[in-house]
Amino acid sequence: MNPIALIGAGPSGLAGARALSRAGIPFTVFEAGPDVGGLWNIDNPRSTMYESAHLISSRTTTEFAEFPMDSTADYPGHRELHRYFRSYADAYGLREHIRFDTRVTAVEPVDGDATGASGWLVTAIGPDGAASTTEHPAVVLANGTLAEPNVPTFPGEFTGEVMHTSAYKSPKVFDGKRVLIIGAGNSGCDIAVDAVHHAASVDLSVRRGYYFVPRYLFGRPSDTLNQGRPLPARIKQFVDTRVLRAFTGDPVRFGFPEPDYRIYESHPIVNTLILNHLGQGDLRVVRDIDRFDGRTVHFADGSEADYDLVVLATGYRLDYPFVAREHLNWTSAAPELYLNIFPPSFNGLFVLGMIEASGIGWQGRYEQAELIAAYLAAQRDEPDAASRFRDAAARPWPDLTGGYHYLGLDRMSYYVNKDAYRRTMKRMLRSLPAPGGAAAAASVPVDAPVDGAAPAGARTGSRT
Ligand SMILES: Cc1cc2nc3c(=O)[nH]c(=O)nc-3n(C[C@H](O)[C@H](O)[C@H](O)COP(=O)(O)OP(=O)(O)OC[C@H]3O[C@@H](n4cnc5c(N)ncnc54)[C@H](O)[C@@H]3O)c2cc1C
């Protein structure tokens, strides 16, 4: 059997490598950057990390379950996290499978056979600049979801500087400037907090209201609270809205619009420093953009102001540029995949890490990898079991929303509820034979609770 191809050695790709290696499935990893760690390696040219970035989900809810982080920080910074991924790769002997500085440019079906039955051709450009093509029975795509900037267009033209958060590294860029940040997602708020110490002025343009979650509640990382059986969505929304009001007050007081949706129907913002700075008068909330005119920005409420630098904190869009869209069943802003992993045609392509969820962490990505590995092992060793697994995809797909009505935004198109998702993953994993006779579910004991209720606390990462 030729090795499976795995694209990317970020947290998801490493999880994939570990799961395939545990299942005894040969694989080769193609990594465009010089090291493991994905976007947590700020030196990876594709990284969208910035100097001040730390986890927004807490260490213990984010780390790989079988490899606790050697850290006392609740919310470690990116350099510590990069070291963690290096240690993870070394501990499980993953590096020897990785071809670094090797960028995949094309993934095409052998003989043009879109069923994937004949396998896939992977073309990559290596460190010497030469392209080579190798044949693989299956390809796992783990090239990340937060790399391709979403750059909206606005009427008019801004003649000052414009940058997307993906290019932001250090707050020195703000020195003495009048800064407008468009979008108050997690990255927008982090960067606004950086900017207030450097810029001449900072405004934050928002279209809708947000829910702000403190990093600590009752003296503990907020996402470590409320572990146990998840509350029904409506009850949790009711309780958590009130808990947040008690801790952070009403963001409307600071100029934010009232959210026109319930908590957890979009990604909450894990940042209350932004509210402190608003309270100190260090920055202002302004309305949605109406148009640009030279250095002047006109807002939807008729107000206007002049700026030197506009920062687009407008998020990212999914991109799998090396594979034709039909192979991934793209229907809208995201491929429509069974369990966010499997194209419904089961063509031998697998997507790993195309998941956004409050609190899913890297362990959630590992559980995706385990399912892929168990399916590939079943295809090899027990084809009937693999066929039954595929049959399940022909029935109505499980509800992964957990009863939450997510906003109909592009960035929410692959959003899931972590409890519903992990519960489903566990069930599907149990439906497959354990690879090589060892428990496929080894790292997810079948009787163990799946990470408890989503707490009233910190959430994992849509960094818009
Ligand atoms: C500022 C910031 C803070 C965040 N905070 C959190 C948090 O607190 N908690 C959390 O869980 N998540 C957080 N995230 C989300 C983050 O995306 C995940 O933690 C994690 O990095 C996703 O891993 P990944 O492997 O899927 O993608 P990535 O980390 O993006 O890794 C993808 C890898 O694929 C490689 N690659 C891409 N294209 C190719 C190609 N064509 N050929 C070969 N290799 C390729 C890249 O070089 C990269 O190494 C944060 C993100 C950002 C930007």
Percent strand: 15-25%
User: What would CATH call the class of the largest domain?
Assistant: Alpha Beta
| Rg over alpha carbons | 22 Å
Bound small-molecule species: flavin-adenine dinucleotide
**Tally of helical runs:** 9
Largest sheet at a glance? Answer: 5 strands, parallel
Structural class: alpha/beta
Low-confidence parts, pLDDT < 50 over ≥5 residues?
A: 438-464
* CATH fold topology of the largest domain: FAD/NAD(P)-binding domain
Number of domains: 2
Q: What share of the residues lie within helices?
A: 10-25%
- H and E order: EHEHHEEEEEEEEHEEEHHEEEEEEHHH
Outline, from the CA principal axes? globular
N-to-C span: 41 Å
Give the neighbour order of strands across the main sheet: 3-2-1-7-19
Q: Could you name the CATH homologous superfamily of the largest domain?
A: FAD/NAD(P)-binding domain
Which second-level CATH architecture of the largest domain applies?
Answer: 3-Layer(bba) Sandwich
Number of strands: 19
Pfam families: FMO-like
Family: Belongs to the FMO family.
Organism: Agromyces tropicus
Keywords: FAD, Flavoprotein, NADP, Oxidoreductase
Précis, in short:
This is NAD(P)-binding domain-containing protein. With 464 residues, the protein is of the alpha/beta class. The chain folds into 2 domains: 4-147 and 317-454, 3-Layer(bba) Sandwich (FAD/NAD(P)-binding domain), CATH 3.50.50; 151-314, 3-Layer(bba) Sandwich (FAD/NAD(P)-binding domain), CATH 3.50.50.
